[in-house]
Predict the structure.
Amino acid sequence: MSDFKYEVDADGIAVITWDAVGKSMNVLTREAFGLVEEYVDRALADEAVKGIVITSGKKDFAGGMDLNVLATIREESGDNPAKGLFDFTMGGHRILRKLELAGMDPKTKKGGKPVACAINGTCAGIGTEIALACHHRVMTSNPKARIGLPEIMIGIFPGGGGTTRYSRMVGAMAAAPVLLEGKMMEPKKAKGAQLIDAVENDALAAAKEWVLNAKPADLVKPWDAKGYKMPGGAPYHPAGFMTFVGASAMVNGKTQGAFPAAKALLSSIYEGALVDFDTALKIEARHFTSILMNPSSSAMIRSLFLNKQALEKGAVRPKDVPDQSVKKIGVLGAGMMGAGIALVSAQAGMEVVLIDRDQAAADKGKAYSEAYMDKGIKRGKATAEKKEALLAQITATPDLDALKGCDLIIEAVFEDPGVKAEMTQKVEAIIPEDCIFASNTSTLPITELAKASSRPEQFIGIHFFSPVEKMLLVEIIKGKATGDRAVAKALDYVRQIRKTPIVVNDARFFYANRCIIPYINEGMRMITEGVSPVLIDNAARQLGFPVGPVQLTDETSIDLGAKIARATKAAMGDAYPESPADDLIFWMEEQGRLGRKANAGFFDYDDKGKRVEYWKGVQEKYPQAAEQPDLIAVQERLMFAQVLEAVRALEEGVLMDIREGDVGAILAWGFAPWSGGPLSWLDILGTPYAAERCDALAAEHGERFACPALLREMAEKGQSFYRRFSPDQSAAA
């Protein structure tokens, strides 16, 4: 059994069918790539073969390269892994170049055989790069099919010729957003972006027809034709110079220089445009190898691909619990959070009962889904029929009796223990005995909330992030009495709504918020010390965070921060660490500067709610220091404030799986994705150096930076987090 099959049809077309053995999606292995070359050679050597069509035996075309191949090559290459990776990459270039030239005479570019690609579903990564090497690409008209080059999303870039081919097809400026954003496109948009040539109901039949009618000129790629000029101009051309300046500005504007792969991608395009095509492929391979050797790349692949995928497939799900898929869900509270939960649940095909205090409030929550679908219709992503069907799945009512028959309840009422307890008891008197009850709380301990339940083993926390429909992570919290079936139910539900779950043990602020709050507080502290808010926010953005701590405070609302601070202080009593950050937040609250929602916070806003500039009143209260700290010093404080909480969460058993700590941090609050997450970042630094920096920061700024005992122990032993804690040692490299 092999991953590729070869047969010649009655018309003399060699059909190479990709069908990876034992896998739900086609991923390319080293052995399979060798088969591609073998079959291409066979087709080119057979005089009876008129042309080649590459297609898939699965519902999708390809899911990319098997990333374990890269790790294996590094291990096999001994002391020179860079050479091993470079040689492997160049081997791939040679195979795809052979496919592209298809037996042509090197000088005249005549005598080749036409090669088409029939893309019958989703196509990504190396699959798209193989398609780009073909002379003609036909894609199915199925609107659910997608094609793209998403490698940048996991810390690498298209290194199988995709960067060079696509940029030479459309020019640097047009190629940059496709390559840098890594978006998967539906067929019509992909054709507009020239990733494909045609969209047909029967892609295979259309590809074969093209092969039989192809003319010699159809086989010659633009860069192999005489007089080729790069669209938009090459770097040394006046128009091209401006194109590359614009592309460079766009790259740095989007990435703030924090993502190595983005720099390498643009360098590959720029340097490759100065030379012939084959030399450009070698340049691409060198930059690709450099990125593969960068620890950032390994960390991103591990967290955003391997670990994320493992968690979504149930890596931490209790093994002996049968399927707990949700059929009917009750959502208590039709505010923004409850409305969002109702929407994503209905999108997943569940029957939804949306409860609020009166009919008007419940209807308002349902209207959120209606407005969402209306936007989708305007953008061509939904239809009136789909909208009607989705809304029919949501019953908005104040009647608790409508919850009868639910197998999952998610409570999203006011963040008050008394209110939540009353609702729990009322609802448990109505719902079935085996129904799981979940609280969507962001701060209140689940173990305490479960005391109001008559069945605490069926009580769990399901913490969504706002806005629900956009955020990718869901944090599941186990109380002390929470049973395995409740955990399995929560995980199966999150799988149904197509989000990524992490499961953590109960503790104050759980995992995500206990790391986010120190990030915000450190930014607030620096303001009270006279550090410019502009420096603080830009320092964070240049680390890859989507927003800095000052802006984040405005976005989440200042009075919420004040409320959390007061509640935490009341709960902790004398153990609460007094902070000048609280003084600043309380003062802002007194000034009525509550953030974006009030059109006044750390920023001034215009009448439309758009940020204008930082509010100068902060500097009147806390004058800026004449001498500002070094950028790196600010960045260190912001990073260590978070990562030390992640270490403490692992140390205390709040985090039960190291993978969840990294994946959760990136998806929940955008923790420096290039780092692979807080624990991966410490591995990049090395635990000995990290402990040393903790000591220096603690000496200068206080005990909040004190080195945790776990980190100290690991530093003394020279251990890394992924060597010590990874449950899957294949992901530990």
Q: What stands out?
A: Residues 38 and 70 are 22 Å apart (CA to CA). Confidence is low (pLDDT under 50) at residues 729-733. The longest strand covers residues 13-18.
